[in-house]
Write a structure and sequence with these properties.
43% strand; 3 helices; alpha+beta
Length: 194
């Protein structure tokens, strides 16, 4: 992937202030894209040493609303989250509520929790499939869109998304999936794990 320059440094700072990126990761991709018909910034960080940096590998990615300057989503697909115990439902809910209070204050107190269940994602790291498991707290906001927080080992937030539109008639998500490598591969025609 190539990095588009210039990019909105303020948008990146909004994301990385909420979710710091380790020093052994570097920004590898920054693009203005569309999400729910709004202009957003998509940022992707990969390991600085280049390992596991392909689609389907390790990455830390963010989506930030350009106009509102707010975090719409983030994911940390790091192999380190494949080890350790995930929190129970009560702890996951507490961590999710605290994260939403910081990352999406306009949603804090306005989300209805629909369910809290374990959730798996698979990445490829060092040539092997690695399963990252967290406790997913799925919510619906007052406008009818969905939000969720996935809390992993050591009570760290692995994934957050908000303002996700679901098409009930089609039984599928309508909102673009800029944080998901499977979806990115479909959009770009790029092969995963190359």
């Amino acid at each position: 992937m190539t990095q588009q320059l210039p990019y909105d440094i303020g948008a990146l700072e909004i994301a990385t202030t909420l979710v710091p990126v380790p020093s052994y990761y570097t920004l590898v991709d920054a693009h203005r894209v569309t999400r729910n018909e709004r202009s957003v910034w998509r940022f992707r960080h990969a390991r600085s040493d280049g390992s596991n940096a392909v689609l389907g590998g390790e990455h830390i990615s963010f989506v930030v609303d350009e106009k509102r300057s707010c975090l719409l989503g983030m994911t940390r697909m790091e192999k380190r989250f494949a080890e350790g115990d995930i929190p129970d439902r009560e702890k996951a809910r507490t961590v999710a509520e605290e994260f939403v209070a910081d990352a999406a204050a306009d949603l804090h107190g306005g989300l209805d929790v629909l369910w809290i269940e374990p959730h798996d994602e698979t990445i490829t790291a060092d040539g092997c499939d690695v399963v990252i498991t967290g406790m997913k707290v799925k919510c619906r906001d007052q406008s009818g869109t969905y939000a969720w927080v996935i809390v992993g080992p050591c009570n760290e937030v692995i994934t957050f998304e908000r303002d996700v539109i679901w098409n009930d008639d089609m039984s599928r998500r309508e909102t673009e999936q800029w944080l998901h490598d499977d979806w990115l591969a479909e959009q770009t025609g790029a092969a995963k794990f190359e």
